[in-house]
Amino acid sequence: MYEKFPEEAIPLVIFNEEKKLFELNEEGRQYLEEIKGPIGIVAVAGMYRTGKSYLLNRMLLDRSDGFGVGPTINPCTKGVWMWGKPVQGLTPEGDPINVIIMDTEGLGALDEDSNHDVRIFSLAILLSSYFIYNSVGSIDENALQNLSLVINLTKHIQIKSSGLQQDDVDPEEYAKYFPTFLWVVRDFTLQLVDAEGE
């Protein structure tokens, strides 16, 4: 079944520099139409140059190559990309599912503004059934505020698209539409201090 799918990264959503808006890539759309059966999406997002693509390549695709990685401060991933060959997975009920792995453009890149970042992050949350937030170092106040801002914006988008007002929606109701969340903290060392401060 999976032999016809390419083992390469395919752009799904690209940013049109001339029009200053995101567009669905035709190749990515056609690819998704070819997949039969239920689909689950695992997406990763986080600050630029923190190893999101490397994480996907090594942990989910089990390969050293795959999504583009590079040694410079310039981002390798622009927009939203997906891996061409679905990964066979299981739903929580044990049913087979085709899992699409998605990589997103890094947040905080020098060549983009915060509005661009919020759109990428929101799109990743809205598309995914399992969302991985990748960060380096400790979880600080700034990281929590950034994550809270985007989640609240995404929640607002979902409520508006349903035609309801914020006050009309039970938090339990819209919580079921959010993906499972995993925060991966990398390159962080926790130092234990004894009672004497040593």
Q: What labels describe this entry?
A:
29% helix; 8 strands; alpha/beta; globular; 5 helices; 8-stranded mixed β-sheet; 26% strand; single chain; Rossmann fold; 198 residues
Class computed from helices, strands and strand pairing: alpha/beta
Helix count, DSSP H or I runs of 4 or more residues: 5
CATH class category name? Alpha Beta
Shape: globular
Name given to the CATH homologous superfamily: P-loop containing nucleotide triphosphate hydrolases
Unreliable residue stretches: 71-75
CATH topology grouping: Rossmann fold
Instruction: Give, in order, the helices and strands.
Output: EEHEHEEEHEHHE
N-to-C span: 59 Å
Explain the overall architecture.
29% of the residues lie in helices and 26% in strands. The chain is α/β, with parallel strands linked by helices and 198 residues long. The chain has a single domain, classed as P-loop containing nucleotide triphosphate hydrolases (Rossmann fold).
